[in-house]
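Lab notebook: predicted structure, single chain.

Context: the supervisor wants predicted structures on file for every construct in the current expression panel, including those that have not yet been purified. This is the next one on the list. No modifications to the sequence; it matches the entry in the shared construct table.
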Amino acid sequence: MDEVISALLVHDQAHHLLPVRQVLRVRRIELVEVRSCQEAATEIARAVPPHLVFTDVSLPDGTCLDIIRLARQASLRVNVIVASRIAELGLYLEATEQGAFDFVDGSCVISDLVYVVQHAAENAMELRSRVGRLHAELEERSSPEKPMRGGCSI
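Prediction complete. Output recorded below exactly as produced.
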């Protein structure tokens, strides 16, 4: 069964992320929208956090850097894409250094958004899958050895 991809939009002005919202809906990605860092923190802290987070640069109670920090603390991989109205090289560098998966600006065309969403979702799913396999392997290795039949214990 295919895993349902989920995304969180964090914004204080809905019109700014309209193209992102449209791409996510066309791709049938489960979508939740919030308007603050505090609300985002609740969503990201869930046992199964969203795969993707698209965030505005500025929010009423913080910035995209706060959202990136929250995502780094999530129980599973969360890829953050920062959405800015204008291209800002300094912000781009800072966001990616802090752990943002990507950065899109107002000049981003739909085909670019589709590409970003596709690769961010694939990356999150792959990394979550790897972590799941590692946990299963560790559990298997740490389980007590089964005794051999008919053998002697010393």
